[in-house]
């Protein structure tokens, strides 16, 4: 490509370090799409002839068929996907192929291709999030009234409903979804026509290529356009945080499936056995979702560090933007799909959850709330309820096994109607404030999430 200036060829290792085709061949569709848009614009503007534009378009279509059939032949001498396409085009249509590269550079070309790819990744992430949300909503609806322990510090705090717990992840996913949408909207400007770094002297129509490629408008600064990878960082940030949410859910599934918890049974489809211990049923899929999140966070950090010292405009360091993005996209897609499958197929064990919810005198706050609702200052009510917990512990009973005489011995203001408030079912039912755990609120939250889905 630069034989005019160079007398000698590259060293073997130079060729190897320079070639990116093994990685960026994944951009072939985007490269062909952007090249077709560029060639059509060159033809429409009279920069190349209509015949040349038509020949290029036919050649690019033919290459698309070849590549779709797996006929891309990798050649490290041709460096990257852009040169592979141009070379093949030359073989197919002859010298007119050389006109495709008029008024563009690989710098605006790769920025455009990569943006088209990342934009699609954002769309796929949103589809994956929607599928997981469906799975969570179905299980939350089914378990709107199932009682489980609610933890702080991983100590039983107050009983909650399983539906409410699952809906917490729906809330996280709604934010993830909006981050991907936001990234998509911000990135949707076309770099094509920025050429190498300074723009071009040809009378190109950047609005036309932007429109053809589904961009909202062309980018505004050629130096920025060829060196900007913020769009990939935005995607990776959204992916990293989404994967952290999946990792937290994965960790809970792993914990819940352990024998001391026993809150869930892992179905065969999402478990592995052990080659030595016949009893084992391991939560490998959940563990891999948790592990993949580390890699996705690493991918975000890799790209940020890649960018931080780069002077304007393009530098070859930018070729290393693709591996972290491809890695994160593949891992996130798998993680979302695996999590949706696990959530759908998990067998919850409500009896275990309820027993754990009742342990640890988890309704002590209920007793304090009852007293406070009956005129006792909350600080004093807290103290009285604390003494009731101490009595229960000393006598080896659960708080809700104390009788009225026991409780009135601690404070005579405790009335008979306080007793039914101390069951875990009553406790969750009472927490009916907006966004609270009461079964009715959970059913409303599920309905609201479904209505939000329908209105998009
Ligand atoms: N393969 C390169 C990349 O992915 C394409 C751009 C090359 N531009 C250049 N001036 N060498 O970044």
Automatic annotation (TrEMBL):
Protein known as: Argininosuccinate lyase
Membrane-crossing residue ranges in chain numbering: none
Domain annotation Fumarate lyase N-terminal: ranges: 5-298
Domain Argininosuccinate lyase C-terminal, chain residue ranges per copy: 361-429
Matches recorded under PANTHER family: ARGININOSUCCINATE LYASE (PTHR43814)
Family, as annotated: Belongs to the lyase 1 family. Argininosuccinate lyase subfamily.
Species whose genome carries this gene: Sphingomonas alba
Entry keyword Transport: no
Reactions this protein catalyses: 2-(N(omega)-L-arginino)succinate = fumarate + L-arginine
GO molecular function list: argininosuccinate lyase activity
EC number: 4.3.2.1
InterPro entries in alphabetical order: Arg_succ_lyase_C, Argininosuccinate_lyase, Fumarase/histidase_N, Fumarate_lyase_CS, Fumarate_lyase_fam, Fumarate_lyase_N, L-Aspartase-like
Keyword Chloroplast annotated: no
Enzyme class: lyase
PROSITE patterns according to UniProt: FUMARATE_LYASES
Keywords for this protein: Amino-acid biosynthesis, Arginine biosynthesis, Cytoplasm, Lyase
Superkingdom of the organism of origin: Bacteria
Pathway assigned to this chain's UniProt record: Amino-acid biosynthesis; L-arginine biosynthesis; L-arginine from L-ornithine and carbamoyl phosphate: step 3/3
